[in-house]
């Protein structure tokens, strides 16, 4: 009897594995939704649509880009977290909703490490410290010196309280010992318009947002916030090089799916997204946006998310940043 039961169990396992494998091979058989937790036109949306077009061609299925902006990406992330774990809802996950917010908000409707399964980190880009050309600062050291001479007079913009851009600004203030005023904007579009128009002294701006204007002469980039220089603007030094040792705030983008999604589908998604990142036109367009393709494994992306939460928790505590 025991041997019969054992054989039945083995057959059942093999059958389940066969079914799961068949599901992965046939996936997708209907339209796939990619939730973007930000408005149309921002860097997250641009990157999503770039990949969505290629997936549409590869899968022969409609890819629906669903913009659900608001609450620092948490509205869209919550929508994705509560969707069926069947591979037909994907979240384009950036650093705020998948790491930073967990260190700022005591109550969230989802847990980025519990409610999602990582697929891959798509890309990483820098945030830049940029100023209006009228400001007499040619580099980050001069900017810091100017801020020390004029305490409380200079201001900097970000795309919102609690954003990586805001974190970068407050961390710079702490490490440099300067007093500058934070002004929050609702998105990179309005932020860059006011910076180029001279309505703001400076701003921490996502590189993909500012990239189209770098040659216009209407804005000057002083430094990147990543530990190393960006390949997109290698002539621009990092804040770490300017004396803020260890400074590293990046804007990264990745793909996650609701927890419980079959591993075979997660594996297919990983393979297909990584394949797209190797396409010459995708790489060229990302370079234009100032983003570097990554294509990490699910395990590597999961580790990045956890390490970023740890890093930001320390920075938030040191700077005393609070969100009302």
What can you tell me about this protein's structure?
With 324 residues, the chain is of the alpha/beta class. It has 2 domains: 30-124 and 251-319, D-Maltodextrin-Binding Protein, domain 2, CATH 3.40.190.150; 126-224, Periplasmic binding protein-like II (D-Maltodextrin-Binding Protein, domain 2). Helices cover 44% and strands 19% of the residues. The protein has 11 helices and 10 strands. Strands 1, 2, 3, 4, 5, 6, 7, 8, 9 and 10 form a 10-stranded mixed beta sheet that branches. α2 links the parallel β1 and β2. α1 packs parallel to α9 and α2 packs antiparallel against α10 (280-289).
What's the SSE blueprint?
Blueprint: H1 2-26, E1 32-36, H2 43-59, E2 63-67, H3 74-81, E3 89-94, H4 95-104, E4 116-131, H5 140-149, E5 155-158, H6 164-176, E6 181-184, H7 188-196, E7 202-206, H8 207-210, E8 220-224, E9 250-258, H9 263-277, H10 280-289, E10 291-293, H11 298-319
Parallel strand pairs: 1-2, 1-3, 5-6, 5-7
Antiparallel strand pairs: 3-9, 4-7, 4-8, 4-9, 4-10
Helix pairs in contact: 1-9, 2-10, 4-11, 6-11
Brief characterization of the structure:
With 324 residues, this protein is α/β, with parallel strands linked by helices. It has 11 helices and 10 strands. Strands 1, 2, 3, 4, 5, 6, 7, 8, 9 and 10 form a 10-stranded mixed beta sheet that branches.
Number of domains: 2
**Approximately how much helix is present in the residues?**
40-55%
What's the number of helices?
11
Quick one: biggest sheet? Answer: 10 strands, mixed
Can you tell me the CATH class of the largest domain?
Alpha Beta
CATH-level-4 superfamily name of the largest domain: Bordetella uptake gene, domain 1
What radius of gyration results from the CA coordinates? 22 Å
Task: Estimate the global geometry from the Cα principal axes.
Answer: globular
Give the uncertain stretches in residue-range form: 14-20
Strand content: 15-25%
Structural class: alpha/beta
Helix and strand pattern = HEHEHEHEHEHEHEHEEHHEH
The name of the CATH topology of the largest domain is D-Maltodextrin-Binding Protein, domain 2
């Amino acid at each position: 009897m025991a041997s019969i039961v054992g054989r039945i169990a083995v057959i059942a396992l093999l059958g389940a594995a066969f079914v799961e494998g068949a599901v992965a091979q046939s996936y997708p058989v209907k339209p796939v939704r990619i939730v973007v937790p930000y408005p149309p036109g921002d860097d997250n949306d641009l990157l999503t649509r770039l990949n969505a077009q290629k997936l549409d061609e590869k899968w022969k299925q409609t890819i629906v880009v669903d913009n659900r902006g608001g609450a620092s990406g948490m509205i869209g992330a919550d929508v994705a977290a509560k969707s069926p774990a069947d591979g037909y809802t994907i979240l384009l996950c950036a650093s705020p909703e998948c790491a930073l917010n967990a260190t700022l908000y005591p109550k969230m409707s989802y847990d980025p490490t519990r409610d999602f399964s990582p697929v891959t980190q798509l890309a990483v880009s820098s945030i830049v410290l940029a100023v209006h050309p009228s400001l007499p600062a040619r580099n980050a050291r001069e900017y810091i010196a100017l801020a020390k001479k004029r305490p409380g007079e200079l201001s900097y913009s970000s795309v919102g309280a609690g954003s990586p851009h805001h974190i970068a600004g407050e961390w710079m203030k702490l490490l440099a010992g300067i007093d500058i005023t934070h002004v929050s904007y609702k998105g990179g579009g309005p932020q860059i318009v006011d910076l180029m128009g001279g309505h703001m002294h400076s701003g921490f701006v996502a590189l993909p947002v500012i990239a189209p204007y770098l040659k216009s002469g209407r804005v000057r980039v002083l430094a990147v916030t990543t530990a190393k220089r960006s390949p997109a603007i290698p002539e621009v030094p990092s804040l770490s090089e300017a004396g803020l040792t260890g400074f590293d705030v990046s804007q990264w983008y990745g793909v996650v799916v609701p927890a419980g999604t079959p591993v075979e589908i997660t594996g297919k998604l990983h393979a297909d997204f990584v394949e797209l990142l190797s396409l010459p036109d995708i790489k060229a367009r990302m370079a234009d946006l100032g983003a570097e393709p990554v294509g990490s494994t699910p395990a590597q992306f999961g580790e990045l998310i956890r390490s970023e939460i740890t890093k930001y928790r320390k920075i938030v505590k040191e700077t005393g940043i609070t969100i009302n």
